[in-house]
């Protein structure tokens, strides 16, 4: 890598780590199984995606136009940083330095920001394929940014496995957060799926766990579990240092689906989540046994 003429500080990376610990408990726990240098790289990627995600999902009263301006400025500063200029934002300093050091493809953070901008204007997705196109930016791009950290090539097999895992985790979020997303004016369950089970967006807005809603959730959970299963062969092929953290994240995230079922599919009265003891015991088992 050419000499940048600047370096990200320890404080820049520490901010990324704190964002990771605060907002991504499952990912953070899993990432601690990486060697220290790679943990820092994962923190930088997480910090990069978390900042704009917060602007979009938790705007704190900011208007759509204000959020658009923030995202546009963040994009410009990202591009300049990847071109060698020192970013002003501490998270971007950590991310750009990491991206340039390990070779994160420039396309991926830009595609991610496309999805964040899409969230400001698109509130429903007519088909599952429409939703997948959104997830290419919101989830799969993040998985692809992990390839240089994991030391794997961007080639057939790994790409498909990573995309399946990323989509499974994103779908798990969508199923867990139906109520929260309604609060933000968004519905991520495809309209074609609602229609298949005799539901409309207004039915979701009533926040009632009806028989048709339960059947819809069972359908979506089954599809999501198939995505997790499709990723498993490629997880098994990862280098040893990366296999355990990815496997742990996959196991813990997929169990959120179990917790949704345990709650009788009521995703309106709070988040379904794994408990601390369950996470700790699973982490210990994966760390020891793989």
What would your notes on this structure say?
With about 290 residues, the protein is mainly alpha-helical. Helix content is about 70%, strand content about 0%. The chain has 15 helices and no strands. The longest helix has 26 residues. The radius of gyration is 19 Å and the shape is globular.
Can you lay out the helices and strands and say which pair or pack?
Blueprint: H1 10-23, H2 25-31, H3 36-57, H4 64-82, H5 90-102, H6 107-119, H7 128-145, H8 147-150, H9 158-176, H10 178-183, H11 191-196, H12 201-205, H13 211-236, H14 240-262, H15 276-289
Helix pairs in contact: 1-2, 1-3, 1-5, 2-14, 3-5, 3-6, 4-5, 6-7, 7-9, 9-13, 9-14, 13-14, 14-15
For the structure shown, list the relevant keywords:
290 residues, mainly alpha, Farnesyl Diphosphate Synthase, 15 helices, globular
- Please give the alpha-carbon distance between the first and last residues: 34 Å
Number of beta strands: 0
CATH topology of the largest domain: Farnesyl Diphosphate Synthase
What structural category characterises the helix and strand content?
mainly alpha
- Overall pLDDT level: 95
Which CATH top level class of the largest domain fits? Mainly Alpha
Oligomer: single chain
Instruction: Tell me the Rg in angstroms.
Output: 19 Å
Detail the poorly predicted runs.
none
């Amino acid at each position: 890598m050419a000499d940048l003429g600047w370096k990200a500080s320890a404080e820049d990376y520490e901010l990324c780590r704190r964002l990771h610990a605060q907002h991504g408990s499952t990912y953070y726990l899993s990432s601690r199984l990486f060697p220290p240098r790679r943990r820092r790289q994962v923190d930088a990627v997480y910090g990069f995606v978390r900042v704009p995600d917060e602007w979009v999902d938790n705007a704190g009263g900011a208007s759509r136009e204000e959020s658009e301006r923030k995202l546009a400025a963040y994009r410009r500063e990202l591009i300049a940083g990847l071109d060698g200029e020192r970013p002003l934002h501490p998270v971007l300093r950590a991310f750009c330095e990491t991206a340039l050091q390990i070779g994160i493809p420039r396309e991926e953070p830009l595609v991610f920001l496309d999805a964040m901008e899409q969230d400001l204007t698109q509130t429903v997705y007519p088909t599952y394929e429409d939703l997948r196109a959104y997830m290419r930016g919101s989830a799969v791009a993040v998985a692809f940014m992990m390839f240089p950290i994991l030391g794997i090539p961007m080639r057939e097999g790994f790409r498909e496995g990573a995309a399946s895992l990323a989509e499974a985790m994103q779908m798990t979020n969508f199923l867990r957060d139906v109520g929260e997303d309604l609060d933000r004016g968004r519905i991520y369950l495809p309209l074609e799926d609602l229609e298949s089970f005799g539901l409309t967006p207004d039915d979701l807005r009533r926040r009632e766990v009806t028989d048709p809603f339960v059947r819809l959730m069972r359908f979506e959970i089954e599809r999501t579990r198939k995505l997790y299963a499709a990723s498993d062969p490629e997880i098994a092929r990862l280098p040893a240092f990366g296999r355990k953290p990815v496997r742990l994240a996959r196991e813990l995230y997929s169990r959120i689906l179990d917790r949704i079922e345990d709650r009788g599919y009521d995703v309106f009265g709070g988040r379904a989540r794994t408990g601390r003891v369950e996470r700790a015991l699973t982490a210990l088992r994966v760390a020891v046994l793989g």
